């Protein structure tokens, strides 16, 4: 079974951690830097880079985001098609690939499971809402809540939101949302997620790479069934060599060094409050 988690789900998960407890998340996935919103970046370059301004067309606050998604997907498609082989110190050669799910693949999966061929970039969230109903993520529910409110109020649609719901009617949406009320503080949350203004003190994220990087898989040449995550493998090696006695900072720094030595370009990151940087690693 494939389970998809967004940064919003991670944020909500961390917010539920009891005051005197902590949660450690190790994410060996592409673009995993900064998955916990507002967690302080202790090791990494994801939040320190200058962001390029997004181009937006008049009357559309979504165009910049859409362009970014398409650009990212195209880049991932190119990277996915690149096959690399790395030779380890013992002479063994391993095949290296990237964990990525091109957007078109997701759309094709949705078409196959729904029998609906009319699914484009702008209709992904409504389709997910239709398929999963009460099990849909909070972000999808908030998105549909805004659409329903606009329909009920008869508000003009300057950015074309109504065109995104296709054949879904008001009654159908109301039925799906029944008992699943999602509060929306501001319109921006629908596209970018909620920002509660609190520091993720109880959440610790160790990412396999930076926000603009992919996280590699590796496998012995000719044996793809033995594939493993390069970062996950590095963590296991470090824990075994240190007998489990290592701090969060030491673990990430050693993983960076080991991956670089093995020929991987991805750079793991650490996101947490200052008090956990030199704390013993627990997972």
TrEMBL record:
One of its GO terms (cellular component) is cytoplasm. InterPro entries: Metacaspase, Pept_C14_caspase. GO terms for molecular function: cysteine-type endopeptidase activity. It comes from the Eukaryota. Residues 4-273 form the Peptidase C14 caspase domain. One of its GO terms (biological process) is proteolysis. Belongs to the peptidase C14B family. This is Peptidase C14 caspase domain-containing protein. It comes from Brassica cretica. The lineage of its organism: Eukaryota, Viridiplantae, Streptophyta, Embryophyta, Tracheophyta.
């Amino acid at each position: 079974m494939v389970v998809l988690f967004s940064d919003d789900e991670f944020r909500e998960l961390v917010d539920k951690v009891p005051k005197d407890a902590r949660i450690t998340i190790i994410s060996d996935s592409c673009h995993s830097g900064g998955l916990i919103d507002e967690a302080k970046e202790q090791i990494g370059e994801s939040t320190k880079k200058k962001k390029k301004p997004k181009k937006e067309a008049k009357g559309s606050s979504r165009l910049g985001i859409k362009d970014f998604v398409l650009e990212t997907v195209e880049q991932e498609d190119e990277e996915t098609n690149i096959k690399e082989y790395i030779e380890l110190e013992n002479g063994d050669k391993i095949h290296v690939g990237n964990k990525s799910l091109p957007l078109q693949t997701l759309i094709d999966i949705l078409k196959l499971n729904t029998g609906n061929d009319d699914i484009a970039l702008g209709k992904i969230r409504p389709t997910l809402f239709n398929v999963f109903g009460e099990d849909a993520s909070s972000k999808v529910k908030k998105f549909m809540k805004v659409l329903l409110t606009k329909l009920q109020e008869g508000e003009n649609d300057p950015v074309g939101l109504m065109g995104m719901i296709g054949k879904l009617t008001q009654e159908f949406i109301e039925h799906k949302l029944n008992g699943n009320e999602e509060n929306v503080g501001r319109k921006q949350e629908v596209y970018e997620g909620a920002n509660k203004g609190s520091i993720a003190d109880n959440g610790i994220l160790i990412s396999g790479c930076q926000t603009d990087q992919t996280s590699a898989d590796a496998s012995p040449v000719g044996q793809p069934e033995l594939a493993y995550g390069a970062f996950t493998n590095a963590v296991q090696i470090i824990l075994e060599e240190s007998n489990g006695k290592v701090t969060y900072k030491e673990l990430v720094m050693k993983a960076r060094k080991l991956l670089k030595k093995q020929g991987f370009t991805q750079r793991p990151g650490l996101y947490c409050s200052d008090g956990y940087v030199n704390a013993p690693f627990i997972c």
